[in-house]
Amino acid sequence: MNCKYFGECGACRVYEGGYEHQLALKVEVNKERFKLFYSGSISIFKSPQKNYRSRSEFKIWHIEDQIHYAMNHIDKKSIVLIDECPQVTQPIFDLMPKLLKAIKENNIDFKLFGADFLSSNNGETVVSLLYHRKLDLAWKETASKIASELGIYIIGRSRKQKVTIGEDYVTEILNINGEEFRFKYIENSFTQPNSKVNEEMIAWALKNLSHKDTDLLELYCGAGNFTIPFAKNFRKVLATEISKSSINAAKANMDLNSVKNIEFVRMGVEEFTQALDGVREFNRMKDIDINSYNINTIFVDPPRSGMDNATCEFVSRYETILYISCNPETLVRDLEILCKTHRVDDLALFDQFPYTHHAEMGVKLTRKKEYQEKNIKDEI
What are phi and psi of 284, to 5 degrees? Predict the structure, then answer.
């Protein structure tokens, strides 16, 4: 990717030497980082070198009577005015100048301070316009005209206000091993930003989880990004997530893909552990027969903070653990606990965020033989 703002814009921090060089640096750093737990080769999944971000946020900067897109400067002390961003998907890239021109020409730039873009692989796009003022009927009528002309959805947001023109989501189609999965990606909620690498992550996870005669437990399931493809590989899936909006989206995505063998539960890990162990009863679990599940595999995709000690101990109960991490540092910390009872069988690096120091990691762990034998004796 060639960008005229390299060295100024803070969105890209590792750019000298090009894409392959920045990827090689990540691989070397993580080989060293995980060497105490894994000595095999790391599976590397590359990103497209440009037009890979389907979710992007920009400041809107006012200079006299003109408006500009802006990003934080690499020094974090100032901003950089930009007129393009080669990171973003082609539909967003093409839309950016047209949208700014339409906003200015139609006089809806007053107290506008941000524009967030969300697109799908087929070009469906939602733009959220962020304001420091209340949005009135005149704004809605003008924004509706712009949305129609540009063929997009627009969300107007201000304090305690959301005005929706069209839809507040896009429908993404992911191709996993030749099979299509459809997902509603909702504006202002978490989605994987790099759809091509996301497809690779799901395919890698499916390769490592293929137990059609048993059941799967998933923690931190979000909107079902992994859960729904996993359902093809297991008899039943039990998935938990603390966010109500994410659970609602997950259930909608399950219906969108005509999947029937998933139970989504809105519950944190601590509560779920208590329910599983019979310590407490929860109304949210009253229709789920825990004893009907035969679970020996668990999948986790926690936030950047990773898992706490109690959750790691809980996860260690299961024979096979698959862990996707957006923060290698907290993954290393968690492996110090998990590798007391399990060994790392596979390690993968997914380059979700090119030209940065960030990397997404995937780890497959299997219970060590001596702990398998102990577990069998404990069950007897």
Answer: -65, -15
Where is the domain boundary, 110, 137, 170? 170
Angle between helices 90-105 and 137-150 (to 10 degrees): 140
Query: For residue 89, which amino acid is it?
Result: T
Establish whether 241 is an annotated binding residue: yes
Q: How far is CA 127 from CA 56, 67, 114, 168, in A?
A: 10, 17, 10, 9
The reply, when asked if residue 220 is annotated as ligand binding, is yes
Query: Residue 139 sits in which domain range?
Result: 55-170
In the set 9, 12, 85, 326, the catalytic residue is: 326
The helix (H) or strand (E) run that includes residue 31 is helix 18-33
**pLDDT tens, 53-62?**
999 999 999 9
Residue 290: CB partners within 8 Å, gap ≥ 6?
275, 276
Total structural domains within the chain = 2
Q: Does 261 map to a domain?
A: yes
User: What pLDDT, on a 0 to 100 scale, did the predictor assign at position 378?
Assistant: 45
Across the chain, the runs of DSSP E, i.e. the strands, are 43-45, 55-63, 66-72, 79-82, 112-119, 125-131, 153-158, 161-165, 169-176, 179-186, 215-219, 237-241, 262-266, 295-300, 320-325, 342-350, 360-367
Distance CA 225, CA 282 (A): 26
Q: Is residue 315 in a domain? A: yes
Question: Could you confirm whether 9 is annotated as catalytic?
Answer: no
The answer on whether 131 is annotated among ligand-binding residues is: no
User: Residue 259: what are its φ and ψ, rounded to 5°?
Assistant: -100, 135
Stretches in the chain below the pLDDT threshold 70: 372-380
Nearest-CA neighbor of 197 among 219, 221, 225, 217?
A: 225
247 backbone dihedrals φ, ψ, rounded to 5°: -65, -45
Does residue 43 belong to any structural domain of this protein?
Answer: yes
* DSSP characters over 255-291: HHTT--SEEEEE--HHHHHHHHTTSS--GGGTT--GG
In a domain, 239, yes or no: yes
